[in-house]
Design brief:
Number of strands: 27
Keywords: Transferase
CATH superfamily of the largest domain: Acetyl-CoA hydrolase/transferase C-terminal domain
CATH class of the largest domain: Alpha Beta
Family: Belongs to the acetyl-CoA hydrolase/transferase family.
CATH topology of the largest domain: Glutaconate Coenzyme A-transferase
Oligomer: single chain
Strand order of the largest sheet: 4-3-2-1-5-7-10
Distance between the termini: 81 Å
Domain Acetyl-CoA hydrolase/transferase N-terminal: 8-192
Structural class: alpha/beta
Domain Acetyl-CoA hydrolase/transferase C-terminal: 282-433
CATH architecture of the largest domain: 3-Layer(aba) Sandwich
Number of domains: 2
Protein name: Itaconate CoA-transferase RipA/Ict
Radius of gyration: 22 Å
Largest sheet: 7 strands, parallel
Length: 441
């Protein structure tokens, strides 16, 4: 019988010692969001600063301050090259500075969230995973907890596993475990987790949230994206009954509905009684609520975001925000002012999953304007790549109403979308639609 305590003691080292296991030329997957391990990333950054390592490619989604202050510092990007699969504020700054100085500050890898494990493991062939886990249990297992996403699939690919054990990191049921025997090295660092609260809601958020909430029936299964708009939808759902959750991101808004008993998962066909997710971001109270709570299960994103899995539940409602909708009905949710702004994430995964669900609704939501009302978000042509194709877009909602694009002709789509644009832009959009031949009269 394996002496787990002895094996743990053997693999427990300092952060400086742990990152020495990462060779020059490594293809390293870094944990997503709050699982980005502060002690390990600080040690790796210091090693690069000292000129002790170079030519490391770091692949990841959704960076937070933990990474921004260490391995994603601009002055290190010639040695620790950031390959982002989902841009945020940190990547936008790296990109801008790189453009100003005439070199690459960050590399962007377009990929849907569901495809991330396959791309990391089989296409890029990452060889190292650095992430945070919960403490080891009596059987020798750590938990990837609230960040299963691509961690579990990468861990099972044979990559070297360098883990940061944190007693504040939640343990979650589902497919989240990794055994001590599989670990290359581990460090202990019991620090508070990064917290993310609900975004402040504007009056238009509340209007859109109310419209969408009115479209959600009792017994529906929810997927909510990130941001104020999905939070506003959750805030308007406290009168519903028997809702379920199957979502990539477990949000504070969804947790509030679970606490209130509005979400009980009783009507789901699969994982009945369980709230299913692949990663979570919230407050300490949210993490504490999830920790060891049998009502939650987490699985890899290749499973959670699989449209065929999503569609097994009836009345799936997916709610995601976008940056632009064109008059054909296509959505760009990731590109702004000629630059990569975020990424496609799991939007299309859930659009297609909800569309295949019996009684399902896929909802794309946006404010009708941007830049304090100076710019219409409904446009004749998109300014960037298509995130959700026109063939897939179902419902579109702004503060001026909701339209179902399914079954409509190009002309009918254009008229419907112009009807929910900001009034001051409708005449101009109609003129552009006529110039494009979308509307003949």
């Amino acid at each position: 019988m394996t002496d787990l305590a002895a094996l743990y003691a053997e693999k427990r080292v300092t952060a400086d010692e742990a990152v020495k296991a990462i060779p020059a030329g490594a293809k390293l997957a870094m944990g997503l969001g709050i699982s980005q391990p502060p002690a390990l990333l600080k040690a790796l950054a210091q090693r690069a600063e000292a000129g002790d390592i170079a030519d490391v490619n770091i692949y990841y989604l959704l960076s937070v301050k933990t990474a921004g202050d260490t391995v994603l510092r601009y002055e290190l990007t010639d040695r620790l090259r950031p390959y982002s699969l989902f841009h945020g504020a940190i990547e936008r700054k790296l990109d801008q500075r790189g453009r100003e100085e005439g070199r690459q500050g960050v590399w962007f890898v377009p990929v849907s969230f569901q495809q991330t494990p396959e791309v990391l493991v089989n296409q890029i062939k990452v060889d190292t995973l650095v992430t945070t886990v919960s403490p080891m249990d009596e059987d020798g297992y750590f938990s990837f907890g609230v960040n299963v996403d691509y961690a579990t699939p990468v861990a099972r690919s044979g990559a070297r596993l360098i883990l940061e054990v944190n007693e504040n990191f939640p343990r979650v049921a589902g497919d989240t475990r990794v055994h001590i025997s599989e670990v290359t090295a581990l460090v202990e660092n019991h620090v508070p987790l990064i917290e993310v609260g609900q975004a402040p809601m504007t009056p238009n958020d509340e209007i859109i949230g109310g419209i969408i909430a009115g479209m959600i029936e009792d017994g529906s299964t929810l997927q909510m994206g990130i941001g104020a708009l999905p939070d506003a939808v959750c805030a308007a759902l406290f009168e519903r009954k028997d809702l379920g959750v199957h979502t990539e991101l477990m949000t504070p808004g969804l947790i509030a509905l679970i606490r209130a008993g509005v979400i009980n998962n009783s009507q789901k066909a699969i994982h009945t009684g369980k709230s299913i997710f692949t990663f979570a971001m919230g407050t300490k109270a949210d993490y504490d609520f999830i920790n060891g709570n049998d009502d939650f299960e987490a699985y890899g994103v290749d499973y959670v975001n699989d449209p065929a899995v999503i569609a097994q539940n009836d009345k799936v409602v997916s709610v995601n925000a976008t940056l632009q909708i064109d008059l054909f009905g296509a959505a760009c949710s990731e590109y702004l002012n000629g630059r990569q702004f975020t990424a496609s994430g799991g939007q299309l995964d859930f659009v297609r999953g909800a569309s295949r669900s019996k009684g399902g609704k896929s909802i794309i939501a946006c404010h009708s304007t941007a830049a304090k009302g100076a710019v219409s978000r409904i446009v004749a042509r998109l300014d960037g790549p298509v995130t959700t194709p026109r063939n897939d877009v179902h419902w579109v909602v702004t503060e001026h109403g909701a339209v179902n694009l399914r079954g409509l002709t190009d002309c009918e789509r254009a008229r419907a979308l112009i009807g929910i644009a900001a009034p001051e832009f409708r005449e101009g959009l109609m003129a552009e639609a006529r110039e494009m031949g979308l509307i003949q009269a």
